[in-house]
Design a protein that fits this description.
This protein is an all-alpha fold. The protein contains two helices and no strands. It starts with 8 loop residues before the first helix and ends in a 13-residue tail after the last helix.
Length: 82
């Protein structure tokens, strides 16, 4: 089975590292190995990124409001950090 691989595991790991990817999982449509799991894990990563971006936006909005209160920056929904 190992010799019938289309992509060597080492090549995939190299690609992951080269592009600084966070996730790598082997899957096989031929055997069904990890076919469901890979989509579940991808969905989890996407959801976590979404939640983190919501939190980051709230933090930035809070920082903007604090700056505006100090009369340093007064511009709706925009921040400038120097």
């Amino acid at each position: 089975m190992e010799e019938s691989r289309k992509i060597l595991k080492e090549k995939a790991e190299q690609f992951k590292n080269e592009y600084d990817l966070d996730f790598f999982m082997e899957a096989s449509t031929k055997t069904g190995k990890n076919c469901t799991e890979i989509f579940v894990e991808a969905a989890k990563l996407l959801y976590n990124d979404y939640e983190k971006s919501k939190k980051d936006k709230k933090d930035k909005d809070k920082d903007c409001k604090n700056l505006n209160k100090q009369k340093i920056i007064q511009n709706s929904n925009k921040c400038l950090f120097i």
